[in-house]
Every structure is written in C-alpha cells, then in structure tokens.
What does this fold into?
Amino acid sequence: MPTTGEFGPHGGFDDYEYHEQLATRFGVGATTSREDRFSDAASNSPDNTTIRLADSLNLFELGSLAPDVTVDEARYRMLSLDAGIKYRGIFVGTSYFVRALGDFKADGPLPTTSIVDQGFYVQAAFYPVKQKLELYGATSWVFGDEDVGFETEHEYLGGANWFFASTRDLRINAQLIRVNRSPVSSTFGYYVGGQKA
It folds into this structure.
C-alpha cells in the first residue's frame, strides 16, 4: 500500500471512506502443496477447502478426469497478482491467477499429467451520492486448460448498495448476475458450480 499505507477497513471493494489522496494496493502470492482426498465434513476450517476444476468438479471426485478413476493425490501450485486504487469514492480493483495441478496419483490411467488454468477478476465502483448510494460492476473469467478439454467460464455482474443508516456496516443491496458455466458455487447461494444462468 505504497501511497497511503492503508486501503480502508479490511481492504473492502469500495471507497466508502472517500479517500482524498489516491490509495493504492499491490500484492503477489504464491503457493505450492501436495494435496490429497482429505475431507472433514465436521470442520468448517478455512484450511478445509476443495480443489475445483474449471468445470466445477472436485478434483478428487470419482470420474473427475477419467471415467471410473479417482485422483488420490496431486501437486497444487498457484501464483496470483492483485492491484487496486481508491480515490474520492471511486474504486477499481483487479486480480490475476495462474494455477497448475500435476504429479497426479490415481487408481487408474489419466488422460493428462498436468492441468494449467488461469483467470482474472475486475471490479469498479463509484458513489453518485457520497456514502449513500454506490453503483458497481464486475467480471471474472477462468480460462480452463483447453488441451485437457476444459472451457472458458465467466460472469458479469452489476449492482447498487444503498447505505441507509450512515454506516458502512448496514446497507441494502440489489444485484444482477449473468453466469456462463461458473467454476464454483456462489458463496451466498445465487448459483451453483457449472450453472449457466
């Protein structure tokens, strides 16, 4: 956060605080890990996540990569970059990732030794009425590994927030979403993975 040393509470996707000086944020992240079929339905820990393929299937589900074959282990690698700006009620943020899955251990033959996906997210927002009415739009794209048979998935969304109580913590939201084969399910249940809506 080179210009102001902060990016608002929790680095939110808006500029409710109405920065008078340009606030900037840049980030990079990388990870690698050996993953397996671990599942603990009793735990909602953030560490207990699912590796989804571009078509929304769980990598470790029976038949995810080949009929009647289960992947037991895989190497997961990811690189991500992000950037954002805030100025006088305007917010623009973007992120990009590239993910590689490989070194598969399975109970049968697989049609590939690796899968490389990439994608991005862009969101912009502004306040036509300062700290009362916010309008925003966003899009995200996941480019599945075509060499393995995956397609491109994307979504477009637009919406408005009405901050009726003079605080960023209470608002009424209206949103429209266009989804084309989402690789994951919506956090709030608006759509499910693989859906076209």
